[in-house]
Design a protein that fits this description.
Length: 195
């Protein structure tokens, strides 16, 4: 049987909740500071900082994201309201990120090497925690380049993602899964330490 090919990382895609309830598209608008100059792409992890605004999550082996960025609404340099798939990081005001911030949301994500080349994990990854690669997003598609790091599976409590399942329809061999279903292991809303 031929399986679909995953040729590159694409970030985190909400698919359902950990309890199996279908994902119904719930999001929250969270402001982005007008001085924030880093691009954020659809599928990037984000976290809330002390100003009550979001930034791109840059942690790899530690950290508490609050959710996944799905797009943005902002006013551009011409004063026009602009909905977009990615936040450009410059020349915008009144920006609000559209974030899937459900603490029990489940996300599909690609498995890659440290160089962001496609890789895989075995079924033994289920139940383990994994490192995140923030990756480089595409200004052409607006999509994230984030993924989880192949070989980082461990029981280390501080790792950002928890593997809850494998994706069968893109596996490349009997026990070689290029995509996994994960949840945020240490969700910022569940963290007892505030910002």
């Amino acid at each position: 049987m031929a399986y679909p090919t995953v040729s590159a990382p694409y970030g985190f895609q909400a698919i359902n909740r950990v309890d199996g309830t279908p994902y119904a598209g719930q999001t929250r608008l969270i402001p982005i500071a007008s001085t924030y100059n880093t691009a954020i792409f659809a599928g990037d992890l984000v976290n809330i900082v002390g100003t009550g605004t979001i930034v791109k999550f840059t942690g790899t082996t530690t950290g508490s994201p609050c959710g996944v960025f799905m797009g943005v609404e902002y006013v551009n340099s011409l004063g026009q309201f602009t909905p977009a798939q990615f936040y450009p990081g410059t020349s915008v005001t009144e920006a609000f990120g559209i974030v899937v911030d459900d603490a029990v949301a489940a996300f599909k994500v690609a498995v890659t090497t440290a160089a962001s080349a496609m890789s895989s994990a075995g079924s033994a990854a289920v139940g383990s925690n994994m490192s995140v690669l923030p990756g480089t997003g595409s200004t052409t598609t607006g999509n994230s380049g984030a993924s989880v790091l192949a070989g980082s599976e461990a029981n280390t409590a501080g790792l950002p993602m928890r593997v809850i399942a494998t994706v069968d329809n893109t596996k490349t061999a009997a026990d070689s899964f290029v995509e996994l279903i994960v949840k945020i292991n240490l969700h910022q809303y569940n963290n007892t330490t505030g910002v």
